[in-house]
Write a structure and sequence with these properties.
Distance between the termini: 119 Å
CATH superfamily of the largest domain: Intergrase catalytic core
CATH topology of the largest domain: hpI Integrase, Chain A
Shape: flat
Radius of gyration: 31 Å
Structural class: mainly alpha
Oligomer: single chain
Strand order of the largest sheet: 1-2-3
Helix content: 40-55%
Amino acid sequence: MAVYRRGRIWWYSFEFEGRRIQESTGLTNRTSALRAEAKRKTDLLERRAGFSRRKLPPPFEEFVPAFLTWSQHQHRPKTYELHANNCKSLKRYFDGKWLDEITPGMVEDFKLARVQEKRWGEKDERPISGVTVNRTLATLRLLFNYADRYGYQMPNPVKDIEFYREPRHLRTISLEEEIAYLAAASQPLKDIARIILDTGMRPDEVFRTEFSNLDFSQRTIFNAFGKTPAARRKVTMTDEVFSILKDRAVGAKSRYVFPSPEPPDRPISRVHKGHDGAVARAKINPRFILYDLRHTYASRAVMAGVDLPTLAALLGHTSIQMTMRYVHPAEEHKKEAAGKLDIYKAAEAMKLAEKNQQASTISATLGRPN
């Protein structure tokens, strides 16, 4: 029996079914440590013989295909693709580890090592962002949750891991930036951007819009997608959006308003290359992402006097608190608000001065001898 001591604590180390079992007994007595080792071996043998409901977890790389098969049937294609890409990063670090050998400490090491890596193939060698690492950690956490449902009873090592703080994105674009961007944008990006700016729809909602979702008589777009009933909503077309969709309906060969080039029976899934090119040609700095057009719509709606409950319904939010995250007044409106405050303070000071002057006049009049 292989027991040995580290400091005052006894450990055991042995092989079982090709895997090395090396664990601390937490005991300071050798005889007690030998009993703990024997019990551990008995537990493992019972599991293998089927005397226990607990299943012996497999190596990480052997469980990933089962997780991805489940994800492919459970999630949207883009979500599945995200998990698949994240699993490639996770396998580089956890290959050779058994699932129940992965500890919170190992996850912390992965988290630190990953954020210090550089993006593969990037000329400017940008580091991996905390946001990207967070998405990978979320995949790992989901994988262990699935393993638990699969019958492998073990703690989730990601459960108490603190994710990197993600900066709130507050970017909206000005009217000048909008004009320059749309002038530089090619199709179908130009029409997609115009629809987002005029309706506040999410990019993915615009991508997946079908002609059957359009009601030209009522001038509405029905968004049939979303995790909540609030997200599945009707959106009113502006005149420009009505014109764009009418033109696209003429001679359409796909059920999607914005079909994928290959194959056309699927919706377009991304326009990031066209967007990045349009931003660069328009010389817009700081840069913005396509989703910022939705932020811009929300901010402009509030500035135009749209109340928050109505805006929440337009954006497909379940609460006003969620809507508040998309409302970012432009700098000119902040200056205008500050100017109004200055005017108010000056007017109040004037009133106070006049009041004091009247009091002084009355006091002087009452104190003057006849």
